[in-house]
Design brief:
alpha+beta, 55% helix, two-stranded antiparallel sheet, 10% strand, elongated, 274 residues, five-stranded mixed β-sheet
């Protein structure tokens, strides 16, 4: 079919017509399908809705919570918000024969590409700022490597000086190293400070809960919200957008419950925290 982006029909034709494919056993066929799926993902530009690798939660124009996953939109379970985390599933349609491959239990919601692109553009934010954050992240990853102690100290300095891009870059590194919850839990000074903040803002009961479970999702969310909004001065929407980006990093580490961090409200064109 060539090295260009292969269409669903082209892939289906291969499965139906290839004499070589028919000779494979079931395990080999499954691996071949997975390989072609991976090739398709690698061959899809991340500048398109189909190419973004993160799962994004958003509230649609109808007021319902939905999931945007690699160019497709799915209804989300509003009671549990358990989002699909399996690789993209393709349904192939052929003029003469229909072949369905690992169809999702939920049916994609058909919507215009304008909506999909709007979600993608909003999630990315200011591309120039994103490049500066990525540059900072790469520089500090090289400088500190796995030294979380020095990275934590750098975090305090960046927040104190209100260096937004540097702070966000450090938060991304700390998330990739699964260190944010440990940081809040292990740093006595920070733990005591946050406890006082939570008591002042939300009352003694929540502050006491924080002392018992400082690594709970709600306190990670409050910590990020406090740093990004109260200390760095970002708007609630910009802070929640960064929170959503970080939540995808958490989910990539296997922490699926972190998909409840933030979401995009497409009608009001804002990001917000859960």
């Amino acid at each position: 079919m060539g090295s260009g982006s292969s269409s669903n029909i082209g892939v289906t034709q291969y499965f139906i017509e290839s004499k070589v494919f028919k000779l494979l056993n079931d395990s080999e066929k499954a691996k071949t399908k997975e390989l072609l799926k991976i090739f398709g993902l690698l061959n899809t530009s991340s500048l398109t809705p189909e190419g973004i690798e993160n799962i994004l939660l958003f509230v649609d124009y109808d007021g319902k919570m939905k999931v945007f996953d690699r160019g497709l939109i799915f209804p989300a379970d509003e009671q549990e918000t358990q989002l699909p985390t399996e690789p993209i599933t393709i349904t192939f349609d052929h003029p003469e024969q229909k072949v369905e491959d690992e169809v999702r239990s939920t049916t994609p919601v058909v919507q215009s590409s304008t909506v999909e692109q709007e979600i993608l553009d909003a999630y990315r934010g200011d591309t120039k700022m994103e490049k500066r954050i990525a540059k900072e992240e790469a520089k500090m990853a090289k400088k500190f490597k796995d030294d979380v102690g020095r990275l934590r100290q750098e975090f305090f300095a960046a927040v104190q000086k209100k260096k937004v891009e540097k702070t966000v870059a450090i938060l991304r590194l700390m998330t990739r190293q699964d260190d944010i919850a440990k940081f809040i839990q292990e740093d006595t000074k920070l733990n005591k400070f946050l406890s006082a903040i939570w008591e002042k803002q939300y009352g003694a009961e929540l502050a006491e809960e924080f002392k018992q479970k400082p690594d709970d999702l709600k306190f990670i969310r409050l910590f990020l919200q406090y740093v990004l909004q109260d200390r760095l001065g970002l708007s609630r929407s910009d802070a929640a957008r960064i929170g959503l980006q970080l939540s995808n990093l958490f989910v990539s580490l296997g922490k699926k419950e972190y998909n409840k961090m933030a979401y995009f409200d497409i009608k009001n064109k804002i990001f917000d925290w859960f």
